[in-house]
Amino acid sequence: MALVEASIEQLRVGHYVHLPVGWQQHPFLFNAFKIKDQQQLDIIRHLDLALLTVDTDKSDLPLAPLLHGEPAVVAAPDAPPPDPEPLTADTGFDEKHWRRSLRAAEKAYGQSMSDLREALGALNLKPDEGLANTAQLVRTLAARLAQHEGPLGLHLIRTPHSDILLQHSLNVAFIAMLMARELEMSPLAVEEVGLAGLIHDIGELRIPSQISQKRGELTRAEQNYLNMHPQYGLEMLNQLQAFEPRVRQVAHLHHERLDGSGFPLGIKGGEIPPLVRLIGLVDYFDELLHPRGASQPVTPNQAISLLYKLSQKKFEQSMVKLLIKLLGVYPPGTLVQLSDGALALVISTEPTRPLSPKILPFIKGQRAEGVSLIDLREDGRTITASLKPEELDEAQRHFFNLGRRCCYYFAF
After folding, report:
1. Where is each HD-GYP domain found (predicted)?
2. Is the whole-model pTM more than 0.85?
């Protein structure tokens, strides 16, 4: 399957199209079909669509070049069609600035790890201090998010697979806070979202590490024990009298799903509070990247596709679309192939440029630190495919540091 974005003007009878709207918004039987006559083509042209997707493998003829002479952009398989990228004033890619931003993000992420470790470690002996420090971690960040003007994306942070609970909690908190900011929540509400993300799995502190961090397949008894962590989390927070009730609810209910298939209560739909839905979605995304037990991890763009497929059953569709908007079609950590055959790793994305992330290209015989980053807005190449880690050789895996965990921090 070769999915290519096309403008309405490029369409001809014989093109196999995927319409980026629901079935209620067009008169055709399916969302994907081959245009068989001029009447169908005219209907599509009146749907008020700027872009749609064409499967060139199933089409009878190739796409005509864009009128302005630029190449069409390849979309990620199974991902929802992104909005067209807006035209903005381009001052050029300042790689030195972006390198500084990456280094600052790595440092800030490491400091957040240290602060959260210290705060959670103090809960037993100095609970008031531990809770206050946990809240302070997101309070400072929420204020900084409120002061930042314009769109904000995420950097890829590669860290060793240590302190898995802390890494997972930070990932969920940071991505959820970015979603809250995009929803134009108040700084106080963004802070609350971040706090809920930090403590949603706090009940795992009562689960033995040989179960919570087990690499092999869990036994039924071990899985049942692990599934108790939401109840343990609620009990811990109630005992500490910590935070608002709606934040405690997140620790208890973040594994509930809209169709009632979740746990521990099996509630569904409107019974699940909005904050729980938000954290539950981001929690699931990060679990796909770093699954427990013997489950195989998926790549970030595969995780996006899976979430999109689940968006009408288990997760709120508007929240899934927002997450995809912020992470991009190719989220940080995605391995991609460019139109000239080169391999690259997506390093940073921004919501206004879902198809043009900043990437680190593979250069044989060089260290990643010495290779220049590329901004695909200014490069003539496009992304033609995403890759799985197992498709790379050992030298390429080492170059991209694939043995480490995929974490995120804000691209200030």
Report:
1. 143-339
2. no
Contact by Cβ (8 Å): 336, 383? yes
Architecture of domain 95-327: Orthogonal Bundle (1.10)
pLDDT score of 36 more than 60:
yes
Residue 70 scores a pLDDT above 80: no
Cβ(216)–Cβ(189) below 8 Å: no
Contact 255, 230 (CB under 8 A): yes
Mean pLDDT value of segment 119-126: 90
The candidate with the shortest Cα–Cα distance to 4, out of 50, 44, 54, 59, is: 54
Across the range 260-267, mean pLDDT stands at: 97
Burial, 183: exposed, middle or buried (Cβ in 10 Å; 0-12, 13-18, 19+)? middle
Tell me if 12 sits within 8 A of 54, measured CB to CB. no
Please compute the mean of the pLDDT values over residues 72-99 and round it to a whole number.
55
DSSP structure string for 248-317: HHHHHHTT--TTS--SSS---GGGS-HHHHHHHHHHHHHHHHS-STTPPP--HHHHHHHHHHHTTTTS-H
Nearest partner of 242 among 116, 140, 128, 166, judged by Cα: 128
**Per-domain boundaries in the chain:** 3-55, 95-327, 335-406
Three-class SS of 351-394: CCCCCCCEEEECCCCCCHHHCCCEECCCCCCCEEEEECHHHCCH
Residue 20 has pLDDT above 90, yes or no: no
Residue 26 binned pLDDT confidence (cut-offs 50, 70, 90) = low
Half-sphere exposure of 226 (CA within 13 A, CB side): 16
**Token pair 């170059």 in the structure block, residue:** 399
CB 201 within 8 A of CB 229: yes
Most confident range (mean pLDDT) of 11-15, 36-40, 75-79, 262-266 is 262-266
- Collapsing DSSP to helix, strand or coil, 343 comes out as strand
- Structure confidence by residue, pLDDT tens digits, 190-199: 999 999 999 9
Q: What are phi and psi of 154, to 5 degrees?
A: -130, 145
Distance CA 265, CA 276 (A): 13
| Torsion, CA 124, CA 130, CA 135, CA 139, rounded to 10 | -160
Among candidates 281, 267, 211, 200, which has minimal Cα distance to 233?
Answer: 200
Q: What is the mean pLDDT of residues 322-331?
A: 91
